[in-house]
Amino acid sequence: MFLALSKTLDLAVAPLTWALALLLCATLLHRRARVAWTLGLAAVGVLVVFSLAPVANGLQRRVEAGAERTFRPDVVYDAAVVLSGQVDEAASRASGELELDAAADRVVRGLELWRAGRVRRLVLSGGPPAPVPGEPSEAERLRDALVRWGVPAATILVDPQSRNTRENAIATGRLASEHGLHSLLLVTSAAHAPRALGCFHAVGHTPDVLPVDRQHVG
Length: 218
Known about the structure:
Blueprint: H1 2-12, H2 15-28, H3 33-51, H4 53-65, E1 77-83, H5 89-95, H6 105-115, E2 119-125, H7 138-148, E3 156-159, H8 165-179, E4 184-189, H9 193-202, E5 208-212
Parallel strand pairs: 1-2, 1-4, 2-3, 4-5
């Protein structure tokens, strides 16, 4: 239920959803020409307004403004928790290679932290909402890539089943308990960091946070 609700709410706040809903209402009310035209113009207006750079950048700035960096450079963390949301599953399936998207800063920063000795281990958390039999999860794809890039497999912990951020937090807590990890650094996109930290706090974990992948321009 929580998974379905989280995905539905994400969809509900998308401008494209608003525009389609307005167009649907316009179609249903086609007999009332003035109302239908008004709704149709409103749908176009929603798409145009939210496509404007000042509006898009302003919204991105507001979202990322809540991403507080609490990373302590003088601390060697037991683990960096790298959250999923950076692998293009369809493209990876088609090419047979790891295909990263715009959020690739997450795994790149995790790798940099490990190479710099700032973290002892990497926790990779995330799987698909609808698993495909025989297909590796995002966390497993990232683990295999990190091993190719020189990170010892024994250094990496994988949660391949989490389907949303709340499940990421629960699974990470379980792995931390099993492996004696106490100091955790959460690595995720700046726009996602406030929500991610809220999910971790809600299940009783208080990691430091390193927001990456900032998209705001100007």
